[in-house]
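not sure who needs this but someone in the group chat was asking about Transcriptional regulator from Spongiactinospora rosea so here u go. i didnt clean anything up, its just raw.
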Amino acid sequence: MPDDRRATQPNRALQHWFDLSGYSKQGLATEITRLARAAGHVNVCPDGSRVRRWLVDGEVPRDPVPDLLAQIFSERTGSRVTPADLGICRQPADQLTWGTESTTKTLAHITRLDLLRQGAASNEGMEYNVTPDALLQHLQTWAHATPSPLPNAVEAARSIGMNDVEKIQATTDIFKKLDNAYGGGLLRTAVIGQVAWANSRAHHGTYSEPVGRALMAALADLCGVAGWMSHDTGASDEAIRYLVLATQAAKESGDRNLAAHLLQCLARVYGYLGQPAPALEFITLATYGSRETATPRIRSGLYALEARFNAMLGRERPALQAINRSLETFTESCPSDHEESFTSHLDETELHSTLGEVYLFLSHTTHRPEHAAASAELLSRAAASRPTERLRSKIFDHLGLSRAYLALKDPEAASTAAATAVGISGEVSSLRIINRFCDVLREGQKFKEISDLTEPCRCVVNKTRSAIKAVE
């Protein structure tokens, strides 16, 4: 995520309370870090230069920092201080009108243009009116914002009932299953068309308050699938647009767990793009925003991703600490816990796979063989227990296992795992799978045992690329 929101004037209110407190800039930063860690926000660790920018440049700190600042100054001065007293406007002017109607209107523009661009020989003159960065700004207030009022229906609008919402939910579940089995390459256009249809119902229909909130949740989940399929085919900007709007729709529905799920999808996109720092900020935002509603499985999954992005940043100790929190939190879950469809994949197999990837990143950044061994063990368990309907994930498990064995300098075992991935990848259309095969080839090029797999791997890569290109 980009740095804290920019302003053009010094924050004189914050400067006033800062002067009264008697803190130095570094001292205040240290106290914020201490309180944040005590509350479980281990990624909140500003330094003195960041505090200076809040004071002098008017940068607006992200949640949960405004509440921490208010707590610190209240305790230090003996006065009750709120973020508003500190001059921290948690809802910038350009976000004041951003609600259900703005979400559906923007989504209508994006889906319409996306479908037109796919069918056109040239994209000239077909530019989106909103950039990913502009949309990201609207996530700043998610953690504490409440759903906005639903729009007033127009005359002769179609009446939407809970049956209509259930149809959208059922369609979304079908798309999820097909995506897991075949990848996003063959299905992205179809799911975007479905998003456009569902969004038109939300934008132009009339419905009761309960139905309207459920409709926004269903739209958010479906839009999230479109974002994930876009990610799977390498359409990163589109993925970010859909996932941000999906998160906004989830916020309007009042479902904080769904919004947290969509934020972790957004974090995965940024991590895949080689930007683990903003990815980590999304996880922090998701954890904070769902702190009162998340089930143990959701929290465990967020901790696992916190570990992943810390590992990508080369932060071994925070990564290992997050791994332990993830494992401990997962043990708190029980079969009787109610899990929504968007969290159904967060089982022990998924946990082993995610943590196996964390150890793989750690093995690459620390060059410690014990991390590669832990990765191989966890990914082997994941590959063995992964259900066949989650074929893409199973391929990832085997490719990750191959890379772990390469890190252990065991090319024969690496070759076996890669060969398994080749054997089951024939029907999957995923650019991410292509890139993982390329990782295996690059990391294994110094081992002659892998050379026999070079041609089969390249065949898979070329075939998958052709399949994705054919439907673009």
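also The chain is about 65% helix and 0% strand. if thats useful
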